[in-house]
Amino acid sequence: MKIYRIVRWVILAGLVVSIFLLFKTPDPVSKPPDSHTIAANVESYQSKMQQLEEAKQHGEAAEVHLTSDEVSAAMSQAASIPAPAVGPTSKNADQSAEQPKISDYQVSFEGDVARGQFSTELAGKQVYVTVGGHLGAKSGYVTFDPTEFKVGDLNVPVSLVNDQLQKKMDEQKDRLKLPDFVADLRVENGQLVIKEK
């Protein structure tokens, strides 16, 4: 009977710690820039993408290196533009209630790993999700091979979420299509490297 009590208290303590870690705000993957820095990074991102497009038009090989600040700024600008509808519009109106509201995008690149962090609402509480992995390209679409996944400060084994993450990426495939002039992308030495076709 005493063993049963000890096991019960250990399980209860583990659940309390897990719930605390789940709702704890993790360290940000990057520091938030000011509005002037964001504008400069968006301009730099657009300039580098224009270089790729021009190289394609002239038949030259080109490659650009983007920092995480440039990518984050471009994502925040894209987030302010309404996203196109995904899937058939004949689905019931309750579908919008199923889609979580995602905000506070942050991106960082370390070595060959891309790490992203965003917040969403779970049970009325703000929860942060951090995912890291390797970016790539296949058949004109962005690919992502996750190596880490965290909810709050709670590490979740990648094997538990990989199938759902890949399924979600398939659902959002139209948003992962690369421009026609991009042949490959990868994270290398802390920068996103994009190669022109």
Describe the model.
- With 197 residues, this protein is an alpha+beta fold.
- It contains 5 helices and 8 strands.
- The protein has one domain.
- The protein has helices at 2-23, 35-57, 68-79, 95-98, 158-171, and strands spanning 63-66, 103-110, 113-122, 125-138, 141-151, 154-155, 182-188, 191-196.
- Residues 81-97 have low confidence and may be disordered.
Strand and helix layout:
Blueprint: H1 2-23, H2 35-57, E1 63-66, H3 68-79, H4 95-98, E2 103-110, E3 113-122, E4 125-138, E5 141-151, E6 154-155, H5 158-171, E7 182-188, E8 191-196
Provide a quick synopsis of the model.
This protein is α+β, with helices and mostly antiparallel strands and 197 residues long. It has 5 helices and 8 strands. The chain has one domain.
Please tag this protein with its features.
single chain; 197 residues; alpha+beta; five-stranded antiparallel β-sheet; three-stranded antiparallel β-sheet; 5 helices; 8 strands; elongated
